[in-house]
Structures are given as structure tokens and as C-alpha cells.
Design a protein that fits this description.
Blueprint lengths: L1 E7 L3 H12 L4 E4 L4 H6 L5 E3 H9 L4 H6 L1 E3 L2 E5 L2 E5 L1 H5 L3 E3 L2 H14 L3 E3 L2 E7 L4 E6 L2 E12 L15 E16 L9 E4 L5 E7 L2 E8 L10 H12 L12 E15 L2 E2 L2 E3 L5 E2 L7 H22 L3 H28 L7 H16 L1 H12 L5
Parallel strand pairs: 1-2, 1-11, 2-8, 5-13, 11-18
Antiparallel strand pairs: 3-7, 4-7, 5-6, 9-10, 10-11, 12-15, 12-16, 13-14, 14-15, 16-19, 17-18
Bound molecules: flavin-adenine dinucleotide (FAD) and 3,4-dihydroxybenzoic acid.
């Protein structure tokens, strides 16, 4: 079997790349190890930069996003029992949109299949060969080979593609905490996201729709989910969001829960020969800055442009620049995500001096126009070059 671009992984990065290439007349095959329902149910990110919604809309994948996405103009930082609004749109001229990763994946998979795209589920890639463009995969109990001009490794952090880059250099940081994320059938208690710092730990109030809330709690990296009853989760959230001003958190039935470890990770370079890494296969950020999904979208947007130019004109200039172009954006997002994480979490290893510095930092960010503008610029996302 042959195609122009073999795409390993059918998460947001792989499906969007396949869709963008199709719009430019470039053929691809997507190989995804899980079944479709699993990929479409996996609860993950929810906050999209304007650059991400622009890419989806301009490529014809924004119809439901435009109907159901919730456009936001600010976020709240809450600490010491007080809220401080960061007016993102006033400071940057840009908006952010709440629209879940599950919905993006559903929209893209439906579009690919409607457009006659070749997306194979339960097709596990066993190995990729960057020098020949050959991908070996297992489907229906048998081994198969797909040969392509190029391979896109969109197979996430635990995939096989990154391991095929010889002399890959990795940079990593693990954090002494994790996030317990819950989805609840209850109207959000807030119109805008609340990022709360509390001495007991960080908490985030996000949302999915006018009737579904998404909330996160900082917990220990080895936290046992079984120790968290619904009542304990809501009690802890209420403490961390607590203010004396009468604001209340409304609890409701929890429909999904999971614990996500927090790490920073970058693999360099993001290309070897015919193989290009994109999204979580090349880099991970802690979720505090809401950057993981947005970076996956910018990587594949840059890769789709480079492949389109290659097939249109024969020029490999953009493909040759791919790794460096992505990595400069990746490292900016790595820094912002690290910065937001250390600003807002309670570090169990910190001492009293470090905690006072953290509080001074929070007060500076909430009280200084240039500091707020810097947070807003990074949160809304820097434009693609
Ligand atoms: P993935 O979404 O990981 O997709 C990779 C795909 O490749 C998967 O479908 C996988 O099944 C498939 N695959 C893997 N190996 C193979 C193989 N050998 N063969 C074939 N297919 C393979 N970001 C935020 O901004 N906010 C959040 O709240 C947030 N929460 C997260 C929670 C969790 C548990 C995780 C893991 C990530 C979270 N992220 C969050 C990050 C964000 O979801 C990711 O950055 C985003 O999913 C990256 O998309 P991707 O397509 O690169 O990778
Ligand atoms: C969501 C997740 C994040 O990590 C974040 O910073 C903002 C929103 C969410 O899932 O809605």
C-alpha cells in the first residue's frame, strides 16, 4: 500500500493534518491504534486560542465550533479569597474559545470520512522507518506495510514515532503534583474561567456548555482516585475557590473523573529524514496554560503548509525549516506553561520564603498592567509566523 503522507495517530493532530492536506490535494492515510468511540470520548483540553479556531474555521471545520463554542474575553485569577480579572480581549484584541477536544476530534473524524478520507481505527503502528518512509502496522490480527513519501508522527507522548529519531535530545521536568479533573452535569458557577491559588493547592473552574462544568484540583502525583468521593471533591473545590464575597460553587453529579500527571517535555529535533513529529509526540506542557492542544494545532498547520509547498513547487525549504519553526513556538509555550504552573500551584517542596515570593508574584501579575498584558498575550496565543 502507498500514499503521499502516512499519519501515525488519529488524535487532534493527526486528523487535522489529514484534513488540511486533503484541502490542498495531498493524499494521506491515518493509522489510529484505538477505536473511534474511545478517541472521541477521551476527556482532555477545552480552551482554544484564536489562532486555533481560525485554522479550524478557515479549513471548513468550524461549523459546529461557531454554533456551540463559547467565546471568552477574560479569565479570573483568584488568591487570598479575592478575584482579579485579566481582560484578555481588551489587552490583546484576541479572544479565546471554550470547545472541548472531544468535539474537535468528532468534527474532524466526521469530515474526513465524509470527504472519503482513509482513517483506520484499531490499526496499531509497530514501527516507522524514517529513511524509506515505511510504516508497519497491525490490523485485524495481521501485519501490514504502508509506504509514503513522508511520515507524520502524531502518536502522542507514548507513541512509537519519537523513538525512530536517532540522536533525539530530550528536555524534561516533572512536577510534584497532578490534576484531578472532573466533568459535572451542573451549570457552571462562573461565566469566565477561574484559576485559583490556595495554600491547599490549585483549582480551576472551566466549563463545557451552559449545563456542563469542567473542574480541576491539584492533587498528589500518585493520588488514588478511589479516595475522592463526589462530596469530598466538591468540598475541596469549595474551600479552594472560597471568597468572603458571597460567591458560591454549585455542586452536581460527576460524570467523568481522571488524574493527569504534570510534566514538561521537549524532543529535539522534530524531524528526521522523512519523519516529522507533531503535537504530544514531540512535546508536553503542564495544562495550566491551556497550551497542549493549541501547540498540536500549530505544529500540523506549519507541517501542512510545508508539505503543500513541497508538492506544489518541489521546494523543500519549508520542510527543512519545520523543526526550527515549531521549536521556537514550542519553547515559548513551554516557558509560559511552566510560569503559570509555578505561579498558581502550591509546591509541597517549597519553604516559607518561596511561598512569600509566590504571593508577591501573584500580586504583581494581578496589579500591574504590563504584567497582565504579558500573561494575556501568551494565554491568547502568539500569532503563527
Ligand atoms: P493525542 O491526543 O495523544 O493523540 C495521539 C493519538 O495517537 C492517540 O489517539 C493514540 O491512541 C494514537 N497512538 C498512539 N500510539 C499509536 C500507535 N503506535 N499507532 C497508532 N496510533 C497510536 N491540554 C490542555 O490544553 N488542557 C488540558 O486540560 C489537557 N488535559 C489533558 C489530559 C490528559 C489525560 C492528557 C494525556 C493530555 C491533556 N492535555 C491537555 C493535552 C492535550 O490534550 C494534548 O496536547 C493533545 O491531545 C495533543 O494532541 P495529539 O494529537 O498530539 O496527541
Ligand atoms: C481547560 C483546561 C486547561 O488546562 C485550561 O488551562 C483551561 C481550560 C479545560 O479543560 O476546559
Amino acid at each position: 500500500m502507498r500514499t503521499q503522507v502516512a499519519i501515525v495517530g488519529g488524535g487532534p493532530a493527526g486528523l487535522l493534518l489529514s484534513h488540511l492536506l486533503h484541502r490542498q490535494g495531498v493524499a494521506s492515510v491515518v493509522l489510529e491504534s484505538r477505536d473511534r468511540a474511545y478517541v472521541e470520548r477521551r476527556q482532555r483540553a477545552g480552551m482554544l486560542e484564536q489562532g486555533t479556531t481560525d485554522v479550524l474555521r478557515e479549513s471548513g471545520a468550524g461549523e459546529r465550533l461557531d454554533r456551540e463554542g463559547l467565546v471568552h474575553h477574560g479569565i479570573e485569577l483568584r488568591f487570598g479569597g479575592e478575584g482579579h480579572r485579566i481582560p484578555i480581549t481588551d489587552l490583546t484584541g484576541r479572544t479565546v474559545t471554550v470547545y472541548a477536544q472531544t468535539e474537535i476530534v468528532k468534527d474532524l473524524a466526521a469530515l474526513r470520512l465524509a470527504d472519503g478520507g482513509d482513517v483506520r481505527y484499531e490499526a496499531e503502528v509497530l514501527a516507522v522507518d524514517p529513511s524509506t518512509g515505511t510504516v508497519t502496522f497491525r490490523q485485524d490480527g495481521a501485519a501490514h506495510e504502508l509506504t509514503a513519501d513522508y511520515i507524520a508522527g502524531c502518536d502522542g507522548f507514548h507513541g512509537v514515532s519519537r523513538r525512530a529519531v536517532p540522536d533525539v535530545r530530550t528536555f524534561a521536568r516533572d512536577y510534584p503534583f497532578a490534576w484531578l479533573g472532573v466533568l459535572a452535569d451542573v451549570a457552571p458557577s462562573t461565566d469566565e474561567l477561574i484559576y485559583a491559588h490556595h495554600e491547599r493547592g490549585f483549582a480551576l473552574h472551566s466549563l463545557r456548555s451552559p449545563s456542563v462544568s469542567r473542574l480541576y484540583l491539584q492533587v498528589a502525583p500518585d493520588e488514588d482516585l478511589a479516595a475522592w468521593s463526589d462530596a469530598r471533591i466538591w468540598d475541596e473545590l469549595a474551600v479552594r475557590f472560597g471568597t468572603p464575597d458571597g460567591w458560591e460553587l454549585t455542586p452536581g453529579p460527576i460524570t467523568d473523573r481522571s488524574v493527569t500527571p504534570m510534566r514538561s517535555f521537549v524532543a529535539e529535533p522534530m524531524r528526521h529524514d522523512r519523519l516529522f513529529l507533531a503535537g504530544d509526540s514531540a512535546h508536553i506542557v503542564p495544562p495550566t496554560g491551556a497550551k497542549g492542544l493549541n501547540l498540536a494545532v500549530s505544529d500540523v498547520t506549519i507541517l501542512a503548509r510545508a508539505l503543500t509547498e513541497r508538492y506544489a513547487s518541489g521546494s523543500e525549504a519549508l520542510l527543512d525549516a519545520y523543526s526550527a519553526t515549531c521549536l521556537s513556538r514550542v519553547w515559548r509555550a513551554e516557558h509560559f506553561s511552566y510560569w503559570m504552573t509555578t505561579l498558581l500551584h502550591a509546591d509541597p517542596e517549597s519553604d516559607a520564603f518561596a511561598r512569600r515570593l509566590q504571593r508577591a508574584h501573584l500580586e504583581y501579575v494581578a496589579g500591574s498592567a504590563p504584567a497582565m498584558a504579558s500573561l494575556a498575550e501568551n494565554y491568547a496565543g502568539l500569532p503563527l509566523k
